[in-house]
């Protein structure tokens, strides 16, 4: 029997990403995503429904997300569904949770979006050089090397 497991989401982070590193050196980033759906009821009333999704990212993608994204920032995520199951230590009941394992992502929005910067305060705004402030406005000339063979 054929099967296909693909999830595509566009939403905003509900909290700053949490990154951990395994003893083997693999980075794991966990973050929450809020995805909104706007619709109109049969009565013509406009409604908004929000779905909260837990997402896990691994490796270099986890490091990049933790560095550049923070609560409120938008992200486009591609991934797969994963069902986690465990026994509750307190009650002994079986528990389960459906989440997404990130396979690919894209930044959405610009630097001025809400929640700029990562959870550790090291966003790309802080690592960029400050803008130049000169009295005159001119277009900088491109740095071209005339000896380039192509």
Short summary of the structure?
With 150 residues, the chain is mainly β. The chain has 2 helices and 6 strands; from the N terminus they run ββββαββα.
Overall description:
By secondary structure, this protein is mainly beta. The protein has a single domain, classed as OB fold (Dihydrolipoamide Acetyltransferase, E2P), CATH 2.40.50. It is built from 2 helices and 6 strands. It has helices at 59-68, 124-127, and strands at 7-13, 18-21, 27-40, 46-58, 74-87, 94-107. Strands 1-3-4-6-5 form a 5-stranded mixed beta barrel. The longest helix has 10 residues, at 59-68. The protein is globular and about 55 Å long. The relative contact order is 0.20. Mean pLDDT is 83; it is low at 115-129. This is Single-stranded DNA-binding protein. Residues 115-124 have a biased composition (Gly residues). It comes from Ruficoccus amylovorans.
């Amino acid at each position: 029997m054929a099967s296909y497991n693909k999830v595509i989401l566009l939403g905003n982070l509900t909290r700053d990403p949490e990154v951990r590193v395994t003893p083997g050196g693999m980075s794991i980033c966990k973050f929450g995503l809020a995805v909104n759906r706007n619709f109109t009821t049969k009565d013509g009333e406009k409604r908004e429904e929000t779905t909260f999704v837990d997402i896990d990212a691994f490796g270099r993608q986890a490091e990049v997300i933790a560095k550049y994204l923070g609560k409120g920032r938008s992200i486009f995520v591609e991934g797969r569904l994963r069902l986690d199951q465990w026994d509750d230590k307190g009650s002994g009941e079986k528990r389960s949770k459906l989440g997404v394992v990130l396979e690919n992502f894209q930044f959405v929005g610009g630097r001025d979006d809400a929640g700029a910067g990562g959870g550790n305060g090291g966003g790309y705004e802080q690592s960029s050089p400050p803008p130049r402030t000169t009295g005159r406005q001119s277009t900088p000339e491109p740095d071209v090397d005339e000896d380039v063979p192509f």
